[in-house]
Design a protein that fits this description.
This protein has about 50 residues and is mainly α. The radius of gyration is 15 Å and the shape is elongated.
Length: about 50
């Protein structure tokens, strides 16, 4: 799923940058899945903001 959405290769050349890029793709995928499920299940987010 990550490959289909964000591409199947990394653009970075250095090892550390490649690892960071892959981890960021996984994080973005997880956020997209959470947002999709919120809409499908009708869940309303409740953020407690203290002022």
């Amino acid at each position: 799923m990550v490959k289909a959405k964000f591409g199947d290769y990394v653009r970075s050349k250095e090892w550390t940058a490649q690892v960071n890029e892959v981890l960021l793709k996984i994080l973005c995928h997880n956020i997209c899945v959470v947002i999709q499920e919120m809409y499908e299940l009708g869940i309303q987010p409740d953020f407690c903001l203290k002022s």
